[in-house]
Amino acid sequence: MNLTQQDQEKIISFLGKNEKAYYNPKVGEMMTTKILVIEPSKTLADALEIMVKEGFKSIPVVDKSTNQLLGVITDRDLRTYCKSIFNYTLKEVMDTLAQHKISDILPPFHLCQKVKEDTLINESAKILKQVNINCLPVVTNDNQLSGVITRSDMLDHLIRILEPLE
Length: 166
Known about the structure:
Blueprint: H1 5-23, H2 27-30, H3 44-54, E1 58-63, E2 68-74, H4 75-81, H5 90-98, H6 102-105, E3 115-116, H7 121-131, E4 135-139, E5 145-150, H8 151-162
Helix pairs in contact: 3-5
């Protein structure tokens, strides 16, 4: 192929722009929209049951009437309030968790890590890494929950990039 230097630069520039958009999409293009949520009036035992049943490590906490994100409850939060399974029976552990409402332990909203739908995946990945969390709620401008983006979603995307389907 006999391309001039200028043509080569145009091709690189053209491909680079398209590939960057493909490789670094917005969160709204990748987020999971079918999500389980929990209300702040539920107990930590309720949260644990959902997490175990569904295989989740975190659940967004929302006001059901407005779909406003209030925060996220994680497996780490539950362990903080949980008696050791090695020293207590499962019933005692669950009874302890049932004594605490999610609203009692939910961190202040301004500490909740979240992103908007137009946030790029690389920025979301940096937040997950820096804060050492597995899931980011995705919100609208008025903090209504629209989805979640997880480390698994990002790993799936990386696999698609590195091993595209034929």
